[in-house]
Amino acid sequence: MAPSFALINIQQAKGGALEAHESRSAEGLLCGWQAEYGFGDRAYDGNPVWKAIEAMGATAVIPPHPRRKNPAAWDSHLYKARHAIEHGFARLKQFRALATRFDKTARSFSAQVALACIVIWLRL
């Protein structure tokens, strides 16, 4: 049985941090949440991300980066279920305002994401 997924948090980069990789925000995004699994691609194979996932009480399902000296074990079969997450983001990107980030404030962007999720959920 495939695991169920839920969007747990949205955070928009602030100021000059727009060029930074989103894995640097992982600890703040995951703090205070509990889950069974934490998914990510190879770009998220860093110690801070692993520690944040462990702090959630979750099992990290992240394939090791090729240059990692001590690669951690990961469940490749469970990782295949990650397509559901990617599919969800692909559906959100069908909304042009979200894909191009028209909104200037975090509040209006979050509202647009919420509305898009409602439309997707209702299948309008």
SSE arrangement:
Blueprint: H1 26-30, E1 37-39, H2 47-55, E2 59-61, H3 76-79, H4 83-92, H5 96-99, H6 106-122
Parallel strand pairs: 1-2
Number of helices: 6
Specify the helix fraction band.
Answer: 25-40%
Largest sheet: 2 strands, parallel
Q: Give the helix/strand class.
A: mainly alpha
Describe the structure.
- This protein has 124 residues and is mainly alpha-helical.
- The protein contains six helices and two strands, in the order αβαβαααα.
- It has helices at residues 26-30, 47-55, 76-79, 83-92, 96-99, 106-122; strands spanning 37-39, 59-61.
- The chain has a two-stranded parallel sheet.
- The longest helix has 17 residues, at 106-122.
- It is globular.
- The relative contact order is 0.13.
- The model has no long low-confidence stretch (mean pLDDT 79).
Summarize the structure.
The chain has 124 residues and is mostly helical. It contains six helices and two strands.
List keywords for this structure.
single chain, mainly alpha, 124 residues, 5% strand, two-stranded parallel ribbon
